[in-house]
Each structure stands twice: as C-alpha cells, then as structure tokens.
Amino acid sequence: MSDRSSSDKEKLEPAVVRAGIVVVLGTIMAILDTTIVAVALDTLSKDFNVSIATIQWVTTGYLLALAVVIPVTGWAIHRLGAKPLYILSLVLFLLGSALCGCAWSATSLIVFRILQGIGGGMLLPVGQTIMARTTGPQRMGKVMGIIGVPTLLGPILGPVIGGAIITNVSWRWIFFVNIPIGIVALVLAIKFLKSSERDKDHRFDLVGFLCLSPGLALIVYGLSEVGNQGGFSDAKVQWSLSIGVILTVLFVWRSLRAPEPLMDMRLFKNRTFSISSICIFLTGMTLYGTMFLLPLYYQIVRGDSPWIAGLMMAPQGIGAALVMRWSGTIADRRGARAVVPFGMALLALGTLVYTQVSATSNYTVLGCALFVRGIGLGFGMMPVFAASYRELSHEAVPRATTAMNILRQVGGSLGVAIFAVVLQSQITSNVPGATSGLGSIMGTHLPPSELEKIATSFATSFWWSFGVCALAILPALFLPKAVSPEKEVLQVRAATT
C-alpha cells in the first residue's frame, strides 16, 4: 500500500505537466536572451557605426530592466493573478523581440531591449510561482528539476545559438527567433494555465519600490561600468554603487517596518529560507561570473571563434541537464542536505581544473572539467530553490520567488564584476603594454609568450570562482534533511491554509 502511495506521489498530474511546458517555453526565451546577444555586439557596433562601449547597453539595458521589474512581480501576482500576469509578460517580451529585430539605430535597439527585459524579467518568477502553487511544496524538487533546465542551459546555449545565427543569417534573427516560440507559449498559456483568485486588498509599496528598484538598477549599472571604466576608481562607478547601496539599505529598513513590503525581508527569519538564499546568491556568482570568463579565455588565449567558444561551453549544460531531474527527486526523498553539498563540491572540483589553464591546455580535459561543473550545478542549484519553498505558506510563495530571483540576479552581476576586475588587473600587471586590460588586446595577434601570460591571468581569475564554489559548501551543510511523514502532513496543511 505504501509503495502505491509513494508511486502516486511521484507521478505528475497532466495539469502539472501542461503548466510545466508553458513555463519552460517562457523561461528559456528569457534566459537565452541574457547571453545570446553577447556574441553579436561586435557585429552590431559595425552595422550601427557606434563604439563597443555604446553597443554594450544592448545587454546592460536588458539586465537593468530585469533587475527593476522583479521586485514588482510579487505584488502584481496578488493584484492581477498569476495567469494574466504571465500572459502580459509574454506579450511584452514578444513585442520587444519584434521591435528589436526591426531596430534602425543603436538607440532604438537599446530602448526596445529594455521593453523586452520588462517582459522577460517577470516570466521566470511568475512561472516559478505558477509551478509552486500547482504542485505544492513537497514535490517542488522534482518539478524545479524539470523547469530548471532552461535556467542552466540558457547561459550555455545562448552564445552557441547566437554564433550560429550570426554566421548564417542576419543578427536580426537573434530576436525574431523568439516570436514563433513565444506565440506557441502564449496560446498554451491561455489554454492550459488555471486562473487563480486575485487579492485586491494588497497595497503597492511605492516607497519600497522607489528605494529598491532604483537601488538595484544603480548597483547593476555601476557593476556594468566597472569593465568600461577600468575599475572601481571611476567617480561614475563609485557614485552609482554608493547611492545604490544606500537605497538598498533604506529599503531593508523600510521592509522590516512596512505592513505590506514590496520584498518581504521577514521571510529571512525562516532558517531554511535564509540558508537557501545564501546558496542561491553564491551559485549565481559562480555561474554567471564563470560564464563571463570562459568565452573570453577561448577567444583571446586559444583564438577560437564565438561559435567554437560557445560549443566549448556546451559540456556544462549537458552535465546539468543529465542530473537535474534526478537531483530534484533525490532532494524530495532525502532532503536538500543530501544533494546540495555534493553538488557544490563537484562544482568546486570542476572549477579547480581551470585554475591551472595555460595557452596549450588540453581541450578534452577542459571539456570534462566543465561537464563535472555542470553535474555540480544540476545537483546544487534547483534543489536549493525547492528547499527555499519547503517551509513557506501558500501565500508566501510569490514573495519568496521575488526574493530568490533578485538574489540570483545580484549575485550574478556581482560575480561578473568581481571576476572582470580581477582579470583586467591581472592582464594589466602581467602583459606589458596592456594598459587598458582586455580592450588593448582584443582582436590582436599576440606571440606565444604573451598568450601564456594572459592564460596565467585567467587562471588567477578562476581561483576566485573556485573560492566562491568552496564557500557555498558551508551553508549547504545546514540545509534541511528529509522530512518525517508526520511533519510532512503538518507542512502540507500549513502550505494549503
């Protein structure tokens, strides 16, 4: 009897599967567009006759839009309902994609990317909320393992798909490719997603929004300008980060006192949620920070094209996809503590290989190391997201989703900024004549001795990524164990009350 009960518990109802398909389609579009444009920046700067510093706002504008819109999502889910908000997000993303493909100047493209980012920024948190409400907390590990595949595959496949499109057709198809996928997701969302009750009693925390969203935007802007200005010494960077931090601190103060805060900081009183938040923040740092370093290493040191560099990052996505669903199922049965520390250790092990890179490192060894990193991400990322929901009530899920996505976004931005500064300072000190870091060596032919020095600079930068991975093991050891049947009944009752 217990075996049948366990088997029934593991099966996903058709409604859950249909909702998962809709969420995956939307998620993969939003995640892909965070990286797919990276390999097109040089082409865009030539077509529009603007500098790389200007065209980089095609990426930065999208990320800023993501950071600004995420805090609004939790309130909007209560006010509009998850289904209408998800449909609205898809429409905005599709409209932004179509306009980006028709852009006639760099300025128009940047503006349309911001519109696209507003829609894309809501797709992931709203999708996670839909799945959390549809499945309940006890099967979130398995479900997050399914819908989490795009989250890890997006940053890996983005450069590969972008390189293939640029090589064979116009750059405009980087944006047009979203349209057929988005239309399918829109039709399925209207047909399959269930409507939820709206709660119009919730008030919008305008003061919190005026503190948090500009604060996050200024932090992301300051971090993005670090690479352009050559470090943290630039006044623009310092003012942006300082004001951003002050506004964020003011938001925390406000959130702890407001009756209905935009981002509920009181969630962090829950021990499991707080520990999961630390793990997600550190995972975001190493995921996006390392994704910044890898293509640069392959293109600068090894002389590979964007297409080849993108392919060399594929083993990480493959490794993650292979274990993602399995890790979620194990986490549901044995608890996140049985899975996540192991995943973080594998993540650190795979990164350790890259701390020894040279100008002639074996491609097979590097590919295997990245495959191990992918397995580590598969075991370490989505079970943490599932654990963060485990002890929360049904009403707290939207607020928790908002907080988790903000933490991952900020963690990723901080990781990219720190690793970029480390890499730039290492190249400047190791390579004579590279006074402006990467900017002075991109697109140039360097002798083997210089390439070896640059490879050493990358190796030092990868040590920072390794440190973040190793640090993430510590909080993972305090994640929850498996829940007893008696406690599971109590949690289900609390979650559905």
UniProtKB/TrEMBL annotation:
Family: Belongs to the major facilitator superfamily. EmrB family.
Keywords, sorted A to Z: Cell membrane, Membrane, Transmembrane, Transmembrane helix, Transport
GO cellular-component term (any): plasma membrane
Segments forming domain Major facilitator superfamily (MFS) profile: 19-484
Pfam annotation, one family: MFS_1
Recorded GO MF terms: transmembrane transporter activity
InterPro entries: EmrB-like, MFS, MFS_dom, MFS_trans_sf
Membrane topology: Multi-pass membrane protein
Species whose genome carries this gene: freshwater metagenome
UniProt key word Transmembrane helix: yes
Cell location: Cell membrane
Protein name: Unannotated protein
TM annotation in the entry: 21-41, 61-78, 85-106, 112-131, 143-167, 173-192, 204-224, 236-253, 273-294, 306-326, 338-357, 363-385, 406-427, 461-479
